[in-house]
Amino acid sequence: MAFVIVEKVTRRYDAGVFALQGVSLEIERAEWVAIMGPSGSGKTTLLNLLGGLDLPDEGSVIVDGQDLTRCSRPELIRYRRDKVGLVFQQFHLIPYLTAVENVMLAQYIHSLADEAEAEEALRRVGLGDRLRHLPSELSGGEKQRVCIARALINEPSLLLADEPTGNLDEENERIVMDLFQRMNDAGQTVVMVTHDLTIGAQAHRQIQLEHGRLAGFHLTPSQEDEDVDEVLEYLFLVREGHQIPPEVCARGAMLSRTSLLEQMVRKNLVAFDNGRPGFTPEGGRRAELLIRRHRLAEKLFSETFQMDEAKVEEEACYFEHILSPDVTDSICAFLGHPHECPHGHAIPSGPCCREASKLA
Ligand code: ADP
Ligand code: MG
């Protein structure tokens, strides 16, 4: 189950303004996602929903298995306190309190006031020599780092940031982004709103909002891998000159997902020839291994386990994604390195087949 699941969320303000309309997306644990889109597209609204600061009119927001739309007020407060760290574009620091006191205020909210720990948090963001400064005595970048120290005080698993570099110069932008990078490396899930393309490019994935709706396709990395595999298989079958059965055509339809294809071109799996997509050598090898796993699984399930046809196809589609090279070769050896699947299609040979033919 994904760490964050947003399902068919709609947030409507008075006067019929739809800030979000039917938005669904998933975010994996330890992922770093950038939420992008023009001003007014619903980015802040989405972030507030993830932080439990606001509730949708329709749909659900589930974080770490907890459905925020079903929480009582005290449960939401506990959720924010235990799980969430918030960093805003405006710093929201108390002007009369020093850096360390501002961080301690956050500790107080989390009922763990400890000055030494607050100082340590500020040192971690490089502000060891600014502990007793008031916000008015700090630069924009330093203020934002106080906010980050404050957001991290409860070691949140979900870090939400709304244009955190919006008011910073280039050098401070880099310092702040390095901090987010470090937190993400340490396993914290980061969701960052930005309209800056270079900032967005540092995330694992960009989610684009337009007029409160998702623009383009947004898959988790594992879903994306499976979709990449499906397209590779589809191209392989086309290359074999197959009549493509209808259930496989869905994979072909994925070719029209430009973002997915672009990704496959970037990963050097697919290249265009005369406007038609084809394999790179690497893409061809990966497709061959997929087809090999699929057809070996088919043969095993239908001939050894005598499963019925529909079940065989379903199981083979699953196993092709999970069989390790070793297990694949063991199955291949067990079946006697077969050349054809039950439908009479060629099973690409593997290293084990070449070894076996050398021994024969
Ligand atoms: P973004 O962060 O992408 O600029 P927002 O999520 O702040 O967009 O806003 C999305 C839409 O919802 C905008 O049209 C905005 O005017 C409207 N909106 C946001 N907050 C409120 C509010 N509290 N009351 C009424 N309308 C709001
Ligand atoms: Mg905003």
Description:
The strands form 3 sheets. This protein has a 6-stranded mixed sheet with strand order 6-7-8-3-9-10, with helices on both faces. Strands 2-1-4-5 form a 4-stranded antiparallel sheet, covered by helices on one side. It is of the alpha/beta class. Strand 7 (158-162), helix 6 and strand 8 (189-193) form a beta-alpha-beta unit. 46% of the residues lie in helices and 18% in strands. It folds into 2 domains: 4-218, Rossmann fold, CATH 3.40.50.300; 224-359, Winged helix-like DNA-binding domain superfamily/Winged helix DNA-binding domain (Arc Repressor Mutant, subunit A, Orthogonal Bundle). The model has no long low-confidence stretch (mean pLDDT 87). The longest helix has 24 residues, at 281-304. The chain contains 14 helices and 12 strands. It binds adenosine-5'-diphosphate and magnesium ion (MG). Residues 13, 17, 19, 37, 39-45 line the site of adenosine-5'-diphosphate (ADP). Magnesium ion binds next to helix 1.
